[in-house]
User: Fold this.
Amino acid sequence: MSLPATHREVRLAARPEGPLTTDHFAVVHAPLPAPGHGQVLVRNRLMSVTAAMRPLTSADPGALGLPQLRNRVGDVMRGPALGEVISAPPDTGLTPGALVRHHSGWREYAVLDPAEAPPIDPAALPDPAAYLSQGFTAWLGVVRGAGVRRGDTVFVTGAAGGVGTLAGQFARLHGAARVIGSTGSRAKADRLVEELGYDAVVIRGAGPVEEQLRAAAPDGIDVLFDTVGGEQLRAALALARRKARFAIVGALAAQLSDGALATTPISTLALIARGVTLRGISAYDHPDALPTYVREFGHALREGAITYPHTRLTGIAQAPRALVELLEGRHLGAVLVEL
Assistant:
C-alpha cells in the first residue's frame, strides 16, 4: 500500500476564555507518523467527540487529577476512534485491514502500542460505529451505579446527549416503570418522548427544575442517573424516595464552563435521613464489565430494543465544528466524524 508523506491532525491552538469555538483549533498537515519497534500503524476511519473533551481545552493538565487531561496548546487532541490496521508486527495478532479501537483520534493516522489498539469483534455489534457510543457509561450507571430494578422511577439528566439517550433505554430494559429525562429544548424533549420512550421531560430554562420534576414524578424518584450536577442534582435529592440510588457519571454543569472543579451544594442531612446512596462511577474502574455490556448492547440493538442515536460529519476538518456543535446542544445523541 502506498502511504502519503503527510496526514492531517487537529491541534489545540488556543485556550478558550469563554465559549469554545472552532478558532481554538488548527487543522494542520504533519509528517506521517512512523511506527517504532513493535508498534502498529493505524488509519483512522471514525472518531467521536464528547462533552468530556471540553475540560481538555481549558484545564491545566492534571488539574483534575485525571490522567487523560493532557492537552496543552499545540498538542494534538485525543479521543475515541476506530481505525484500520495498516501495518503491525506479526507477534501482535493484528493483521492489515483489522479494525481496532483506541484513544488517538483527531488525526488521520496514529502509531500505537499493540496494547493501546485492541481489535473489535465486528459480529458483536451490528454497526461498528456503536463501539464509539457512550453506551458503556450508560450501562454502568444503570446497572452498577444505581442498580435499576423493576418498578423504579428513574430521572436521567442530560437525556439528549450521547450517554443520556442510551441510559434511558437501558433503564427501561432493566425494569424501570417510569423514565424522566432533562434537556434544553422542547424539540429535543419531544424527540425523547416520541423516539426514545421517555415518559416525561424536564426542560432546562422552562422554570425551576424541582417544580418540573415534581410534576413529572409526584411520588418521587428511586434513581438518579446524573450527567449534569448543579440544580438538577439538587432537584433530584429533593424528590428522592427513601433508599434512592444516585449514579453520578458526569458533571456537564461544570464541564461546559471553565469551572471544571465547580461544586454543587447539597444537603448531607437529606442524604442521611432518606438513606440515599450517592455513587460516582467511571468506565475506567470497571473493565471487567465490558464483555457483559457488549453482549447486552449487541443483543438489544439487533432485537430493536435499543437504538443508537448519532450524527455523522465527514472529514477531519469537521472535528472542531463537531465538538462545538455538540457543546451547543445542536445534536441528539452521539456525534461522530468520519475520516
User: Anything to note?
Assistant: The chain has a mean pLDDT of 91. The two ends are 18 Å apart (CA to CA). DSSP finds ten helices and 14 strands in the chain.
